[in-house]
Specification:
The protein is of the alpha+beta class. The protein folds into 3 domains: 171 residues, Cyclophilin, CATH 2.40.100; 198 residues, Protein Transport Mog1p, Chain A; 113 residues, no CATH class. It contains 13 helices and 24 strands. α11 packs across α12 and α12 crosses α13. The relative contact order is 0.09.
């Protein structure tokens, strides 16, 4: 099968008044289907002097958010609270307990909350008129009690705020009346009595029929907890697939129509890849594709087709395997190369492909990169596959190919250093550690540490925060030192000798069982203190001892 590369760029911006809370409490839990159904059979009725709001809830999209909202309503939290931010044609916002006190300075409105934060649960619900969604500050996971009701379709908010309910269509609602209340220059109501919630209560049981489902986007990206931290999770409701995005990669394009077409590329935060892009002119991609299943094009239960670049020459197949996992699902895995002629010359691409089927679709997960840089981003393909889920037997299930010995061996081969090794790419030149270790006994250790960074350290909030600050500091001087290493072999050997203890200490994290933010923080501080001891304290003690020795002579 031949597919064209497609790239779509979009920039969405939005903001809400910042929200500050006293502390952070992890309120997230896993809900059973029965608990979700129980919440689905509840609604919230908000009574005001200007009318009422009847809110239908969507716990299947945002279970923790709905649970939090119901608990606050049942506690009487919203009684007496004011819709403190009213913007006709956009939205109305409430939920700040600071608005209950008439003596409190209005400048504090919009800053209050319940004393804790809840995690975002971005989903595919569109922010159309009547949708109820959580307000938040600049941090994604900073919502608490403040919510807003969309007055006019505002789809630029989709995927950036947690939609969790809507005003029940067909019932009288006070939305237009509240949106028309006169406001001051800060969008706060002048007549507070008209904007005050008299009573909010839970209706149980509640059911609604003949109103239709809310409009949805075909996909959404939200953050989910995984072992050791938080990762971005892509969900496509239309095509019934989902997977964890590789760290610092994101979806850059989605096709429309009956079949899945998704392009995943590294973001600007992935510094090493950006250097590759500047050097090669190509952005590495992971493509996720589906097409209608055709049994006549299958062999041994899997499609014999494979991805190739349109207008390129005939691809060369380097590896070609069919294997079966424990669930009886078969996969076809291929590594191939292909030359592409352009005005600037010939570029050789390398591709790693996984193909599998369900009852009615062929699926392909394809990693594409220029050959010289191919092995460096194989981990992005690996991360996509091991977390990939698709529709089997009427429900979304993991494909479970990531632990198969054949798959693991192919990934290992794809990451291996080619023989003979080409000249070091420019990407290495930007990092003094990679340059010093290149083509030496330290090179495999550096590659392992990079995977440890991607799969463990950067999957935690503490680790991510540290790496952001560290990278800004490190890359302020690293390229200069790396250039000098290439010019002076003796200096390169000196740097390699200097960084050997550092690499050894970092390798200790491979043997640590890091399952929480606090463990990551503890191990991280331990490694930092160990290096301070090796590079500063120990030499200082040695120098002091030497000086003392000579003074005694």
């Amino acid at each position: 099968m031949n597919f064209k590369f497609f790239i779509i760029s979009a920039l969405l911006t939005s903001s809400f008044v910042g929200i500050a809370f006293a502390q952070t409490i992890d309120t997230e839990k896993e809900f059973s289907q029965r608990e979700i159904n129980d919440m689905r059979n509840k609604a919230v009725l908000i009574t005001m002097s200007e009318g009422t709001f009847m809110i239908e809830l969507f716990p299947e999209d945002a279970p923790n958010t709905v649970n939090n909202f119901l608990n606050l309503v049942e506690d009487g939290y919203y009684d007496g609270i004011v819709f403190h931010r009213i913007i006709p044609g956009f939205m109305i916002q409430a939920g700040d307990p600071n608005t209950k006190n008439p003596e409190l300075d209005r400048s504090s409105w919009g800053q209050g909350g319940p004393g804790y934060k809840i995690n975002a649960e971005f989903n595919t619900l569109q922010h159309d008129r009547g949708i109820v969604s959580m307000a938040r500050g600049n941090q994604v996971n900073s919502a608490g009690s403040q919510f807003f009701i969309v007055h006019k379709d505002s789809n630029f908010l989709d995927g950036k705020y947690t939609a969790f309910g809507r005003l029940v269509p067909g019932l009288p609602q006070a939305l237009d009346k509240i949106a028309s209340i006169e406001t001051d220059k800060f969008n706060a109501p002048i007549d507070v009595s008209k904007a005050t919630i008299i009573k909010a209560r839970v209706l149980d049981p509640f059911s609604v029929s003949h109103v239709g489902e809310p409009d949805r986007n075909q996909s959404a990206i939200n953050q989910v907890k995984v072992t050791g931290g938080i990762t971005d999770h892509y969900v496509n409701e239309l095509h019934k697939v989902e997977f964890d995005l590789p760290y610092r990669w994101t979806v850059t394009a989605e096709g429309e129509g009956n079949f899945l077409r998704v392009v995943v590329e590294p973001t600007a935060l992935e510094h090493n890849v950006q250097q590759q892009i500047e050097q090669s002119g190509f952005t590495p991609q992971v493509l996720i594709i589906s097409e209608e299943r055709d049994a006549s094009q299958e062999s041994a239960g899997v499609s014999t087709g494979f991805f190739s670049i349109q207008s390129g020459d005939d691809p060369k197949i380097l590896s070609n395997y069919i294997f079966e996992n424990d669930a009886g699902r078969k996969a076809h895995m291929i590594i191939s190369t292909q030359n592409f002629e352009a005005d600037t010359g010939t570029t050789k691409f390398k591709m790693l492909q996984l193909h599998f089927t369900n009852e009615d679709r062929n699926y392909s997960i394809v990693y594409v990169n220029v050959e010289d840089w191919f092995r460096y981003e194989v981990n992005a393909f690996h991360q996509t596959v091991v977390n990939f889920e698709a529709m089997f037997d009427g429900e979304i299930q993991p494909i479970n190919f990531g632990q198969d010995p054949v798959f693991r061996q192919i990934i290992s081969d794809a990451k291996a250093e080619p023989t003979p090794e080409p000249a070091p790419p420019a990407r290495i030149g930007g990092c003094l550690i990679a340059t010093a270790s290149y083509d030496s006994e330290l090179a495999p250790q550096v590659q392992q540490l990079r995977e440890l960074r991607d799969n463990t350290v950067l999957q935690t909030e503490y680790g991510s925060a540290f790496m952001i600050g560290f990278n800004q500091f490190y890359y302020s001087f690293s390229p200069m030192i790396a250039d000098y290493e290439r010019e002076n072999p003796m200096f390169k050997e000196a740097v390699k000798l200097t960084i050997t203890p550092l690499l050894t200490s970092l390798a200790l994290l491979q043997y640590a069982d890091i399952d929480s933010e606090h463990e990551m923080l503890g191990y991280g501080i331990g490694v930092i203190l160990l290096n301070i001891g090796m590079y500063f304290v120990a030499p200082a003690v040695l120098i002091t001892k030497i000086r003392s020795f000579y003074k005694l002579q």
